[in-house]
Structure formats: C-alpha cells, structure tokens
C-alpha cells in the first residue's frame, strides 16, 4: 500500500514534468538516463563491500567471509539482478506510456533507489526486517511487468513484435 501512495503523492506534488518525447528512441534514451540514478545504491554497495573486505580481519583473502562482508556482497548481487529486471521493464513501460504519464519513469527510478537503500539498512539490522525493503522493490517491478504484458497482449497485440 505504501508504494502506490508514494508514487501518487510524488506524481501530484513534485513540480516537474517529463520533456516532450514523441519518438520511441527518445523515450528509451530518457529511460536510460533516469536508470543511471538507480545504479547509485549498487555502486555505493560495491564501495562499502570493498572497504569492508579490506577492513575485515580474515587472514585468508579467499577464505570464509565474515557476516559484515557477506551482507554487502549479497546486497550488491541481489541489487544487480533486480536492477536488470527493473531497467528492462522500465524501458518497455516507456514505450507504452502516454506523454502525460512519462513523469512516472523518474519516480519509479527514485523509488527503486530508495527501496534498495532501505533493504540494505534493514538487511544489516537483521534478516527478518528485510521484507519491507524487498517488497518496496519487488512489488513495483511486478506491477510494471503486469502492465507491460497487458499493453503487449491486450492494448496493442498487432504490434507485439514490431
């Protein structure tokens, strides 16, 4: 319930509009530029993972990882996988959205970045707390996937492969 409320509130109250993007290629470039900001939590996780690996007291560099190092490594791995799914769904979504709804692309990107950071913090606290951050990432991804499938098979079935 929180994700749709956050997206709707940001859509209504944030004072920006998407630029005029009449072609599919312009929309894809816009999505690619917005997706760059979604890589911030992943790059930050890589930096923190490297620092924690350097500062760990392990005598063997390829031996058993400490819990702190393992948390950051797992976070980066899961975030990369989710980012790939998120980016491809956003790219398809950008081709189906009407011009007045293209404001959702940067809002969904911001939601992805914030929810990955929330997941990271809650994962560091304890494994039982990570469901909130994961659901804030996964449920919008699932909603985009369902909308993309609906758009491909119901709204424009004649343009499915073109």
TrEMBL record:
It comes from the Eukaryota. The chain crosses the membrane at residues 37-59, 79-97, 104-125, 131-155. GO terms for biological process: regulated exocytosis. GO terms for cellular component: lysosomal membrane; trans-Golgi network membrane. The keyword Membrane applies. Keywords: Membrane, Transmembrane, Transmembrane helix. The keyword tRNA processing does not apply. PANTHER family: TRANSMEMBRANE PROTEIN 79. This is TMM79 protein. The gene is Tmem79.
């Amino acid at each position: 319930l929180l994700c749709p409320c956050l997206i709707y509130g940001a859509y209504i109250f944030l004072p920006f509009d998407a630029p005029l993007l009449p072609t599919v290629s312009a929309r894809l470039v816009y999505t690619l530029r917005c997706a760059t900001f979604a890589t911030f939590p992943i790059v930050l996780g890589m930096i923190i993972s490297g620092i924690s690996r350097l500062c760990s007291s392990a005598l063997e560099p390829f031996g058993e990882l400490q819990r702190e190092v393992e948390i950051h490594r797992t976070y980066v791995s899961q975030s990369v996988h989710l980012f790939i799914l998120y980016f491809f769904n956003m790219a398809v979504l950008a081709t189906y959205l009407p011009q007045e709804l293209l404001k959702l692309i940067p809002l969904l990107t911001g939601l992805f970045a914030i929810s990955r950071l929330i997941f990271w913090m809650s994962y560091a606290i304890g494994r039982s707390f990570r469901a909130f951050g994961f659901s804030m990432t996964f449920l919008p991804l699932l909603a985009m996937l369902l909308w993309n499938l609906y758009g491909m098979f119901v709204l424009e079935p004649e343009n499915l492969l073109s």
